[in-house]
Amino acid sequence: MAASVLVIPGLLGSGPDHWQTRLEGEFPTARRVEQKDWARPDRSEWVATLDRAIRECAEAPILVAHSLGCVTAAAWASDRPQGFVRGALLVAPSDVERADAPEAIRGFSPIPMMRLPFPSVLVASSDDPFLTVARSRELAVAWGSRWLDIGPAGHVNAASGFGPWPAGEALVRQLADANPAERGLPPGSLSRER
User: Fold this and answer.
1) Distance between CA atoms of 39 and 22, rounded to whole angstroms?
2) Contact 62, 172 (CB under 8 A)
3) Per DSSP, what are the bridge partners of residue 62?
4) Alpha-carbon span 131 to 164, nearest angstrom
5) Which of 65, 49, 74 is nearest to 142 (CA)?
6) What is the 8-class DSSP label of residue 66?
7) Half-sphere exposure of residue 192, counting CA atoms within 13 Å on the CB side?
8) Angle CA(183)–CA(8)–CA(57) in degrees, nearest 5?
9) What's the predicted TM-score (pTM) here?
């Protein structure tokens, strides 16, 4: 797999035992999108940091987002044309619009509810404390994502037992290895032309 991989953690980042951190070690082309402040996220700042990271890639990358990172990726994509990103794995998005959402993430509302300009897979857990199954399906439909329910897996993080996650790595490889037509894109749509 030669595609660039950008890892986009959520609130508080992803620690050493998190599947995203482990995934970085499995893909030589992977690098983390480092936010200035993981504890006090700012939507416009996080989106701008992601934009810089994407533009620094030599080719359209695969985004690997978790939790608030998924909302960041959707916010970035809301006004971008096709071709900047090869695909995205969106794992356990945080529902920043829930009444009980932590105050720190409410500034990411509203969640963009439009089709993403790249193929994506939304991975949901049936007992995620930050996203109901119904809401995960709603986001998948709005974003045009393939929806994948992995059963009771909490927030799909280290606290839920997700250090190494071979199934997640396999999903990244599928997104990277598929040609544009298999991902539902027209040939040549992955160019870096702006």
Assistant:
1) 21
2) yes
3) 5, 87
4) 22
5) 74
6) E
7) 9
8) 65
9) 0.90
Cα dihedral sign for 48, 53, 56, 58?
negative
Calpha distance 110→71 (Å, rounded): 9
CA neighbours closer than 13 Å in the CB half-sphere of residue 80: 24
- Tally helices (H) and strands (E) across the chain: 5, 6
Task: Determine the Cα–Cα distance for residues 62 and 28; give it in Å rounded to an integer.
Answer: 13
d(CA 162, CA 23): 11
Residue 14 has pLDDT above 80, yes or no: yes
Single out the residue of 78, 105, 98 nearest to residue 9, CA to CA: 105
Residue that has been written with the tokens 């608030």 in this structure = 68
Write out the H or E segment, with its range, that includes residue 148: strand 146-149
DSSP secondary structure code for residue 56 in this structure: H
In the numeric block, the tokens 């959402």 are attached to: 101
> Token pair of 67, please?
């939790």
Residue 182 φ then ψ, to 5°: -70, -25
pLDDT beyond 50 at 156: yes
Separation in Å, CA 170 to CA 54, 74, 121: 22, 22, 12
Segment 21-51, tens digit of pLDDT: 999 999 999 999 999 999 999 999 999 999 9
pLDDT tens string 72-118? 999 999 988 778 999 999 999 999 999 999 999 999 999 999 999 99
